[in-house]
Every structure is written in C-alpha cells, then in structure tokens.
Amino acid sequence: MAETQDKYRAFTYEIAERIAPTWERRRADIEQVATPVREWMIRALAPQPGDTVLELAAGVGDTGFEAASRVGESGRLICSDLSPAMLAAARRRGEELALSNVDYRVIDAEKIELDSDSVDGVLCRFGYMLLADPAAAFAETRRVLRPGGRVALAVWGAVERNPFFTTAMMALVERGHLNPPEPGGPGPFSLANPDRLQALLEAAGFPDTRTEELSGSFAIPDIDEYVQTIADTAGPIGLSIQALSDADREAVTARCEAALAQYKTNGYEIPCVAVCASAS
C-alpha cells in the first residue's frame, strides 16, 4: 500500500511539473469557469484583516490571492504547492498583482511543514482529491489550524456530471492510450461523493462541516479547442493527448466531437459540477 502510494505521489509530482507551463498560459480560461467556486470558498472562509491563510495545492494561486487582499498588510497568505514549477507560476501571478503579503513555499499537503495552531484558515481548490492519502492531508490541515479556524475546499463532483473531463478520458481509454481509473483510487473524482468527503473531514477532527454543489459550464468555441484545452490542463489526460500521433489525435478528436454533440450550440457549453465544502 505504502509503495503504491509513493509511486502515485511521484507520478503526480512529475505531471504537475510538466503541465505547469501550459496551465499558467491557460490561467484566465481556468478562472472563467472556476470563479464561482473561488467566490464560494472565500465567502465560506471569511478571512479577516490580520489573519494568516494557507493555500494548499495552489496551482497559479488565484484563490489564495483573493484571500490575501482580504487579510491586508497586517495579515499573510502562505501560497504553497508541492510542485516548484507551479509555485513559480503562482509567484509570477502574485508579482503581477503587486501583492506584498504573500510567502511562497513548497509544501506537501500530507506533511505540512508548519507549526501546530499556526494559521487561521486553509484553502484548497481541486487539490485534496488528487492526493494519495487525503485523510492524512485533512488531519494535517486540522493540526495547523488554530482553534476556531476553518478550511474551505472544492473537488470535482460525480463522473457522469463532468463530461468536460470524462469525454476525452474515455476516448483515450477506448483507444488504449490511457489506463482506466482504478475504482476507489485517487484522482479527479475520488472525493466526488459529498457523504464520503464529509466523513473524512469529521474523522480528521472537523465536527462542523457543510457541503454544496455548484454547477457550471465550459464555453468552448470548437472541438479542436476542446481537445487542446484538455491537453494543456488536464493532468495525465492532457499529457496523453500531447503524446498522440497526428492520426491518433484526429481519431480521439472525432470521438470527442461525437460524444459532445449534445452540448453544441454556436460553440459548446459543456457542463461541470464541483462539490464545495467548509469545515471547522
């Protein structure tokens, strides 16, 4: 079990390092869809002037940067990611926003190198679900929070309600370019069940938890842009697309076009569902 988890951790680290440049270039596209999730998380966390907020698996950091503007110069944001490449992208974004109250740190969410009772709030958008041991990460989150502190997070909802991701994934699986996800294993949909998510939070020491589903959609002009967006942002699915030959990519694109025809208008409006949670 431990060896399997370690292999998965090494795999996800490599993916994050490799996909960071295209993820950074797609930041605005990602935020267009993720803005309602970010706003929900900030409302749930309710950071106050002077607070210290930790963002885990920050990616390019936009959720945490909004918290940084709320805590002010007397407060502090610790923007963290396990991937140095992702953290470098976040630093560039923070400099672009002229934020001066942000510390950037490489941090493993399963082994947070901070003192106990040292932060007032924790944010994690689409991160816990990708971890080998989310239960350990929730326990570490509880440990570093001060009494009365709160965590706000988001994960992707049920597989069947997120065709933006699953369409390309299944096209790759069908043609033998990607292994099917292991049932119950870590991945984008591992925490999609709100009951399981709530149970994990409660087991980590968060007696007061709540969850809410947020529906949205990805607006994509055409099928080629859909495939390229997935290639640029969707972790192992994206890297699999990047590695395709021209002929294989054409075949995968055709399969995606057929599967997504039901969402076609002038372009495509492809639905997605996130599960947001807060706990204290």
The protein's oligomeric status is single chain
Named CATH topology: Rossmann fold
Mean pLDDT: 95
Q: CATH homologous superfamily name?
A: Vaccinia Virus protein VP39
Largest sheet: 7 strands, mixed
Strand numbers in spatial order across the main sheet? 3-2-1-4-5-7-6
What class, by secondary structure content?
alpha/beta
- Strand portion: 15-25%
Count of strand segments: 7
Using the 3D structure, state the CATH architecture.
3-Layer(aba) Sandwich
Separation of the first and last Cα atoms: 30 Å
**Percent of residues in helices:** 40-55%
H-E order: HHEHEHEEHEHHEHHHE
> Which CATH C-level class is it?
Alpha Beta
Q: Categorize the overall geometry.
A: globular
Set out the fold topology.
Elements lengths: L1 H24 L1 H19 L6 E4 L6 H10 L4 E6 L2 H13 L5 E5 L12 E7 L8 H11 E12 L6 H12 L19 H10 L5 E12 L2 H11 L1 H8 L3 H14 L8 E12 L1
Parallel strand pairs: 1-2, 1-4, 2-3, 4-5
Antiparallel strand pairs: 5-7, 6-7
Helix pairs in contact: 1-4, 1-9, 2-3, 6-10, 8-9
Give a verbal description of the structure.
This protein is globular. The protein is built from ten helices and seven strands. Strands 3-2-1-4-5-7-6 form a seven-stranded mixed beta sheet. Helix content is 47%, strand content 21%. The mean pLDDT is 95. The protein has 280 residues and is α/β, with parallel strands linked by helices. The protein has helices at 2-25, 27-45, 62-71, 84-96, 134-144, 163-174, 194-203, 223-233, 235-242, 246-259, and strands spanning 52-55, 76-81, 102-106, 119-125, 145-156, 209-220, 268-279.
